[in-house]
Amino acid sequence: MTVAPQAPPLVAHVIHRLSIGGLENGVVNLVNHMPRERFRHAVVCLTDYTEFRARIASPEVEVIALHKRPGHDVGLYRRLWGVLRRLRPAIVHTRNLGTLEAQVLACLGGVRGRVHGEHGWNAAGPEGEPARHHRLRRLLRPCVGHYVALGGEIARYLEDRVGAPRARISCIFNGVDTQRFHPGGAGRRALLPPGFAPADAVVLGTVGRLQNVKDQPTLARAFVRALAEHPAARARLRLVIVGEGEHRAEVEAILQAADARALAWLPGAREDVPALLRALDVFVLPSRAEGVSNTILEAMASGLPVIATRVGANAELLQAGVTGVLVPPAAPEPMAAAILAYLDDPARLAGHGGAGRARAEAHFSLAAMVAQYAAVYDRVLGR
């Protein structure tokens, strides 16, 4: 008698919402690149999902929306319990504090593999989080079988503040698709508005939601300061801010007050980020807090030098003085100085960009990321 092959273990990825974002992009990359003979996947969204779900390549991956209502939605737990009972996953993988309580249901439901990832902070590092968040993480620690920390800072927090044993913490960096993100060639500026960037322009740019933690207003202030310190830069220096959010009006006001609005392009949220990155010369990440920044990795893979704030794992991603520059957060003056240093030194700009591409290929491949997650999944299943 022929024995039917056993289906690979199912991983239920529990996230807040499937939409454009670094965490969500990491989930999609993991689902798309994990060998199908190793693990199957389902994505459970506590709220809902957007057209971003189309980035998931396999139609076999179920994406489920639980439509969480604002505030404390008690019915959410019943709906999540029902989904877990139907899916019967071998592993429940939650991400960030907002989904951590799903580990309790996984524990009560007898799910053997329970993995929780911490991807970054919504405030200025762990010290900016309310005390109740730290208490909740400590309270639910027994329900988590293994932690994934995106960066050394988060791993230390989990060990020192949450009390997770070091042996139950894996530090895994995001991987970047170096085929999708690559340096530009002739015609790379075609997506920019006509007449926006002259042939000798140095185009700065950033990508991200326009929200407090990403701090695009500091980048706008640094850009304005660079123009004030180097008046000739008005002829060549340009700024691109990709993304949408509550800080758009503030960014535009800063630029308008310095008579620099025409030197900046704010196209809103875009789906063609790889091509837009290839249109830039320098990438700037002004965040007040970060976990492991996907956009830094994407910028390096695109052959761009990176100016980034010294927060989160940024210093673990780029090599200061080799692939870019680290500056303090919320400090326009040193950011402006870093911008002007690239404007006046094209050889340094090209050298840092090339070194960033080489570093992305050597250390932050998708294959390496997938292999590390597979090892964590095997470990929690005792394989």
Automatic annotation (TrEMBL):
Residues 20-180 form the Glycosyltransferase subfamily 4-like N-terminal domain. Keywords: Transferase. Pfam families: Glyco_trans_1_4, Glyco_transf_4. GO terms for molecular function: hexosyltransferase activity. Transmembrane segments: none annotated. This is Sugar transferase (PEP-CTERM/EpsH1 system associated).
